[in-house]
Fold Probable GTP-binding protein EngB.
Amino acid sequence: MKINTAEFIVSNSEVDKCPKERLPEYAFIGRSNVGKSSLINMLTNHKNLAKTSSKPGKTQLINHFKINNNWFLVDLPGYGYARVSKKTKAVFQQFITDYFERREQLICAFVLIDIRLEAQKIDLEFMEYLGESEIPFAIIFTKADKIGKTKVASHVAAYKKQMLANNWTEMPQYFITSSLEATGRDAILEYIDQINED
Ligand code: GTP
Ligand code: MG
């Protein structure tokens, strides 16, 4: 899919204030600093459409970006940043759970996972929550440039093993990406395109 236009529409902390249009949307979620905003810039081929930072906690609101006048990419705040309560439940800010529970336009969530790390409890819990809520999701492994190309397969295999050990019967659809090298761009855009056409 070719991206012709990508425009920032609105930032807010309330799901009721999100755009009213009934366009399909795809949301990016994951731990703070995993690379959600960078991935949105990479996919849309814009340097600064979504704001990024080397410090965790940059994105604080729900941000809607309209693509090709036809669908939305949604940048969300990260979870798991230690400023919030230690209790895992409180780590998912209420407006983020509201978004996932009430946003009817949400077609698919992309859960971003840093490819360098072992499976983290907070990500496994979040995916379990999505599964229980029957929200379709796919995994995006980020920062693949930080490990050697030969290590990618073994990291993914280790992750898969952890998913299966956590009651998943199969590994969800996944993508390997590097925002630095634009790896995985075509595969993700193709995936979104396919869903939009169905
Ligand atoms: P929050 O908004 O704080 O939740 O973070 P985020 O998930 O949006 O992360 P962001 O895109 O702001 O990126 C965090 C840091 O990781 C920045 O310093 C990025 O440059 C870096 N980063 C993101 N993606 C990649 C990548 O694919 N490769 C490398 N090497 N660095 C990356
Ligand atoms: Mg961000």
